[in-house]
Specification:
Radius of gyration: 20 Å
Structural class: alpha/beta
Shape: elongated
Helix content: 25-40%
Distance between the termini: 37 Å
Strand content: 25-35%
Length: 242
């Protein structure tokens, strides 16, 4: 069966349904697709479908499609990998969401901390959801991660103290040196993993104490001071390596 290289996201449960206005616009006005054309659809639940465009409503700016058959499937993630994402300036939080989708994060929790420069803005979660779906389609991953509303880091760390999980924190100062074998053993023993990296201003002394009390293992990727997004990527690559 012939199909293009693009994937499109859908969220209806029947064999036929309408794509969102954004997806419809991309199909018709950008890719110039027509009725009868075959496309690929994903719904973030582990299945990619071949589908046919059966109706283009130009007035309503909607495309109706029909699912034809399964193109491929993907098993559900074996581990829950939670990324505590710092709120950063200049679209960098969206960048971290994109890379987290590509590298297997299952839950994103944006946070503000004592030294956070960027503050939560209206429709932040909506913007991050949009970036997440875009990354999902691009990389070919079939399970959509979840995104929570922004939290205050200190409150969350207090709740994290008694939770059994592998908890890693990118931190230059006083990093615990663990060999690969130790980290691999901890990774294999836990089905839930937390990843934390700081905002542009780093962590406050109170937050560093709470990080210790919550049982996070500090990991250092360099003897130099890393940018927030670099430290976050370091954690993502470490988890994938494990």
């Amino acid at each position: 069966m012939q199909e293009g290289g693009n994937r499109f996201f859908f969220n209806f449960d029947q064999n036929t349904g309408f794509l969102s206005e954004e997806e419809s616009h991309h199909l018709v006005n950008v890719l110039r697709k027509k009725e009868g054309d075959i496309i690929r659809l994903i719904n973030g639940k582990g299945i990619e479908f071949f589908a046919k465009i059966i109706e283009i409503q130009k007035k309503n700016k909607k495309v109706k499609v029909e699912l034809i058959k399964v193109a491929r499937t993907e098993p559900a993630p074996k581990k829950e990998i939670v990324a505590l994402v710092p709120l950063l300036k200049g679209g960098k939080t969206e960048f971290l969401i994109e890379k987290g989708v590509e590298l297997g994060i299952t839950l994103f929790i944006p946070f503000e901390s004592d030294f956070t420069v960027a503050k939560p803005k209206p429709k932040l979660k909506q913007r991050l959801e949009s970036k997440m779906i875009s990354a999902l389609k691009q990389c070919g991953r079939l399970w959509k991660p979840e995104i929570e509303n922004p939290i205050v880091l200190k409150d969350f760390l207090n709740q994290l103290k008694n939770e059994k999980a592998l908890k890693l924190c990118a931190e230059k100062e006083e990093a615990v040196k663990k060999c690969y074998a130790e980290l691999k053993k901890l990774f294999d023993e836990n089905t839930k993993i937390y990843l934390l990296s700081g905002p542009e201003g780093g962590f406050s002394k109170e937050e560093i104490q709470l990080i210790k009390e919550a049982g996070l293992i500090k990991i250092s990727f360099s003897s130099y001071v890393l940018r927030s997004e670099t430290a976050f990527l370091g954690l993502l690559f470490l988890i994938n390596f494990l």
